Amino acid sequence: MFAGDGQELETIPFKYGRVDDGLMWGDYAMKRIEPCNRVDRFLSGVAYLDGERPYLIICRGYYTRTTVVAYDFFEGRFREYFALDSGFVPMKNPFNDNPHAGKGTDPVYGILAGQGNHSLSTADVDGDGCQEIIYGAAVIDHDGSVLYSSYGNLPDGRYAKFGHGDSMHVAKINPDRPGLEIFNVFEGATEAPYGYALRDAETGEVFFGEFADRDLGRCMIGDVNPKVRGLQVWASDKMYSCTGEILPDKLLGTNQCIRWAADLSTQVLDGVDYIGGNHAGIINDNTHGIMLAPEGMATNNGTKGNACLIADIFGDFREELVLRKADDSAIRIYTNVDVTEHKLFTLMHDIQYRTGIAWQNNCYNQPCYTSFYYAGDMEWKTVWESL
Q: What is the spatial distance between Cα 50 and Cα 229, in angstroms, rounded to a whole number?
């Protein structure tokens, strides 16, 4: 832990060590031998676990074994708030097996094994005023208990976990029902009940989704059709309304979304022909077209095309875009100065959004969302009630 002036306050070892270079974690069990891959997959975040104060969340593992520790730092030192460990996934042969499919050895937390993503999210999914940890296909309650871990039936009737996925969005997607929703993709292909699904954030109930025979990789949500109520969701080759209706809209990109326009709609990065065949941080949508085409800039993380950061930095309700120069000599911050007819407190006032910005350092940084429905047809009463 470091102070604002860079002074070290305290350093402690993480509770769950490597044990080995990945043998027991499954790094030698698949077709590709990958020492130090699954064993050294880390996530971190911040959650208001008691509804009032921020706790540090540190995690190790999500393809197979899952370990999570929550700490407070309220008295100038780290104190463990809760810790959980799924245990290793048993394998018949650590050099030839599928460790992703099984449960961990812990009788309580074993169902969390293999359910995590390359990022996590924090949100109050059950309406008790305390934030939960959305760990991919599973949700950990604010007290460290398992709220649920999603399993379902494959087409052949086998019962299987939803499993690991690369992209996840937790938001108020359907404004006409209580609570939040989660839109995920899952990479298990024929071994996962869904390739993508929209589900209830509190219970895990699937509203709609589709089985897939391949890893779909990415998905996205946003208010990209002003004529359709709720946020739209898309993955693979289809765009849906929040109630599952297939829409005829042209598919947009799935790298990152940004609240950029003055009309409270959602835009995406790239999703058009990339300049020179590379992601360049182009902001566009189907209504406004290209709204920003940065010159001499580049995104990060290869095919993911991530910006350095997308966040409401300067204090209105729209987000800024932070990109690096293509020669890595500097960063630039882009902000929208279009006049708007709307007035709203900053997004950072919303706890879910603020903690979402805190977990942007994770692996595949994913967009974060407010706890209230953010769209061109938002109902202002529900916005104020969310504070």
A: 33
Cα dihedral across residues 273, 278, 265, 263: positive or negative:
negative
Distance of alpha carbon 97 from alpha carbon 29, whole angstroms: 5
Sorted by sequence, the CB contacts under 8 Å of residue 31 that are 6+ apart come out as none
Q: How many residues does the chain have?
A: 387
Which pair of tokens denotes residue 298? 């580049």
Q: Report yes or no: 46 and 359 within 8 Å, Cβ to Cβ.
A: yes
The answer to whether 122 and 133 have CB atoms below 8 angstroms apart is yes
Sheet containing 283-285: which strands, arranged edge to edge? 257-258, 267-269, 283-285, 289-292
Residues in Cβ contact with 163 at an 8 Å cutoff, skipping those fewer than 6 apart: 100, 101, 114, 115, 137, 186, 187, 188, 191, 192
Question: Which pLDDT tens digits describe the chain residue by residue (387 residues)?
Answer: 899 999 999 999 999 999 999 999 999 999 999 999 999 999 999 999 999 999 999 999 999 999 999 999 999 999 999 999 999 999 999 999 999 999 999 999 999 999 999 999 999 999 999 999 999 999 999 999 999 999 999 999 999 999 999 999 999 999 999 999 999 999 999 999 999 999 999 999 999 999 998 888 889 999 999 999 999 999 988 999 999 999 999 999 898 999 999 999 999 998 554 555 567 789 999 999 999 999 888 888 777 788 999 999 998 899 999 999 989 999 999 999 999 998 888 999 999 999 999 998 788 888 999 999 999 998 887 777 666
Residue 70: closest CA among 150, 133, 123, 9: 133
Q: What is the spatial distance between Cα 168 and Cα 127, in angstroms, rounded to a whole number?
A: 20
- The burial of 106, by beta-carbon neighbours within 10 Å (0-12 exposed, 13-18 middle, 19 or more buried), is given as middle
Q: Are strands 151-153 and 159-161 parallel, antiparallel or unpaired?
A: antiparallel
For residues 313 and 23, what is the distance between their CA atoms, to the nearest angstrom? 43
d(CA 99, CA 163): 11
Q: Are 135 and 142 in contact (CB under 8 A)?
A: no
The answer to whether the pTM exceeds 0.90 is yes
SS3 assignment, position 196 = strand
Distance, in Å, from the CA atom of 124 to the CA atom of 159, rounded to the nearest integer, reads 29
